[in-house]
Amino acid sequence: MTADVVVVSGLPRSGTSMMMRMLEAGGLKLLTDGDRGADDDNPRGYYEYAPVKRMASDSSWVGDARGKAVKVVSRLLYELPQGFDYDVVFMQRDLAEVLASQGVMLARIGTAPVESEQVQMRLRFERHLVELNEWIARQRSFRVLQIDFSSVHENAAAAAARVDDFLKLGLDTEAMAKAVDEKLYRQRGGSGNEKW
Fold first, then answer.
1. Which of 47-51, 65-69, 104-108 has the least mean pLDDT?
2. Plot region of 172 (φ>0 → left; ψ -120 to 50 → alpha; else → beta)
3. Is the alpha carbon torsion for 158, 159, 164, 167 positive or negative?
4. Domain positions in the chain
5. 90 has pLDDT over 90
6. In the predicted model, is pLDDT for residue 187 greater than 60?
7. Which residue has the higher pLDDT, 108 or 154?
């Protein structure tokens, strides 16, 4: 039995847009609005849906996501309403890479964090992910598949097959794999022991 809604989630800069693009290529409809266009940080687009950000006060749009995939950043997963079953594809990425990618993005708008802020951000991310994983484990309406960002780039075909096996939607895994753009893996080289 498939879930009502497919949710793509993870920390900012963890590969959620890439996964949305893969699902779209595989034949799954997406719930997006195009309000946030492509830019230097996400040349293929962000695949966002603006009402997600206001979910704490209005989650009425979730019914429109039935049979589709929607991107929900990890800190907003708590706001998803009861009454639906969710299959969550959760993107993992080395925290050093997440912070480096976020630093580049912030530098473009002139607000690059100093080292002490980076340290605090890492601690917040680590704490958030521990708490989130504990909370998800208690949610009967959630099924979660963890997908590692670097592993997708190492073997996109295998990653696509894992996602299709999890969702059981008969997606076009070959097209999904082809949607992965190696050139967009630009911040690499974490320690290798900071996966979450």
1. 104-108
2. beta
3. positive
4. 5-184
5. yes
6. no
7. 154
Q: What is the distance between the alpha carbons of residues 94 and 148, in angstroms, rounded to a whole number?
A: 9
- Whether the model clears a pTM of 0.90, i.e. scores above it, the answer is no
Gap between the Cα atoms of 108 and 43, Å rounded: 14
Superfamily name and number for 5-184: P-loop containing nucleotide triphosphate hydrolases (3.40.50.300)
What DSSP string runs through the chain? Answer: ---SEEEEEESTTSSHHHHHHHHHHHT--B-----S---SS-TT-----GGGGGTTT--GGGGGGTTSEEE--GGGGGGPPTTS-EEEEEEE--HHHHHHHHHHHHHHTT-PPPHHHHHHHHHHHHHHHHHHHHHHHT-TTEEEEEEEHHHHHH-HHHHHHHHHHHHTS---HHHHHHT--GGG--S----SS---
Higher-confidence residue of 189 and 180: namely 180
Give the C-alpha separation, 21 to 28, whole Å: 10
